[in-house]
Specification:
Chains A, B: One of its GO terms (biological process) is negative regulation of DNA-templated transcription. The structure is a homodimer. By secondary structure, chain A is of the alpha+beta class. Helices cover about 45% and strands about 20% of the residues of chain A. Chain A has a six-stranded antiparallel sheet. In chain A, α2 packs across α3, α5 runs antiparallel to α10 and α6 crosses α8. Chain A is globular and about 60 Å long.
């Protein structure tokens, strides 16, 4: 792989260019790409042109680039994430129809939960991340349930790292978080109120795959004090859906 | 961009490696990647390792690679395809609930229709392409409706190119196909029976965006001779859903 003068590979630089595009910034000029990717302007322009030739970026009006359809196709047609999301979607729809709140499915990516599917309800509370968005594991119920079932070294390393806070309720003490994870394993579900947004409660359960391993977290985001959350009704709905997803994953594996 | 001895860029070779992975072949060894991508084995191995370092591929059991979560995230988080699919999905669900057949949404990519969303019904007829799969424009109703509304030079170039056939009914005569496109524009919908699979009928309508331009094709795949298709009920359901998608795209643009 050809390296730049800084020893960075072409792939690393292309990755940084793609990472400059987000749900909020879907259209960028060459200059914006250079700034966001931390690359010299000439390098960013040349790479963006190469990527456009390949269909990984596309030129649109006003000299802007967008992420190209070709990349979407390459990333999705054999994707485990799309496959998991599609398996889960009908069961998420069942929860959504009954509870009328946001339902989301996430997997672990490093120290974060990556949301692979979400069903939103127009009247539900506002929430942060969209599909393909990320949240710190310890700040969302979906992330907490994944962290609680991660291999022990992953949990230890997570607890040893910096624990960011976005509200006053965000847990930043490793001992408090460790006790939280223990409780999640004991009860089989995670609940957090206000860790990410004030007045918002997240509730999540693990989704197991063909074996016993946890392959995803399935969560609902609702208003703090929602009577359905207090009564355990949301947890039961989530467990039922998680069971259905697992059954379908096992049937598909045959 | 550094070039190989054949003058091919790193991006071109990485694109070919990613293209080796499909819905059927989701796990490949380095040797299989080399064969499918038409690359020297050593080159394929080295590039696959570089891609794995970047998270674009991932190593799984048995020395296989799969397309990585990182690439899925980069391709989806600012994606117009995901955004269009998510806007269309509730309306596709309405059709699906009423008609109980496959419903699909496609966009033009070169000489093919790329399926960006599909809802399938377990009892519906078997069909070929999955999400992120492709079909030749002239062999599927969704593709035909897109071709009929493509700019004139695109249509002319398509008609001048080779028209592949997969069944005896597949149209291979440019004049017959041109008349088909004319009829699609006049009636506002496309119908094909047996072009792609015997005993299967596809019906599709255009989805317009914020302006008058056609941004997608919305189609249903059903059994040949389905009474709902004959009575025009499917076309009306598709037009209603296409209208809903357009309305939502316009509202979102405000």
């Amino acid at each position: 792989m050809a390296n730049s003068p800084t020893g960075e590979s072409v792939l690393e630089r292309v990755d940084r260019i793609l990472a400059a595009f987000t749900a909020e910034d879907t259209r960028l000029t060459g200059g914006q790409i250079a700034a966001l990717a931390g690359l010299p302007t000439a390098t960013a322009h040349r790479l963006a042109q190469d990527m456009a030739r390949q269909g990984w970026l596309e030129r649109v009006e006003g000299g802007h680039y967008v992420v190209g359809t070709r990349l979407w196709e390459l990333a999705n047609r054999s994707s485990r994430e799309l496959s998991l999301a599609r398996t889960a979607r009908p069961f998420m729809g069942d929860i959504h129809a009954v509870l009328r709140q946001h339902v989301q499915l996430g997997i672990v990516e490093g120290r974060e939960v990556l949301l692979v599917e979400r069903l939103s309800h127009p009247n539900a509370v506002a929430v942060r991340a969209a599909v393909a968005g990320r949240l710190p594991l310890h700040l969302s119920a979906t992330g907490l349930v994944l962290l609680a079932h991660a291999p022990a070294p992953v949990q230890e390393s997570y607890l040893a790292g910096p624990l960011s806070a976005v509200t006053e309720a965000s847990p930043t003490d490793p001992q408090v978080l460790a006790a939280d994870l223990e409780r999640i394993r004991a009860t089989g579900h995670a609940v957090q109120t206000g860790y990410l947004e004030p007045d918002t409660t997240g509730i999540a359960v693990p989704v197991r795959g063909r074996g016993e391993q946890v392959v995803a977290g399935l969560g609902v985001v609702t208003r703090a004090g929602d009577p359905a959350a207090r009564a355990g009704a949301i947890v039961q709905a989530l467990h039922t859906a998680a069971h259905g997803i697992r059954r379908t994953l096992r049937e598909d594996a045959r």
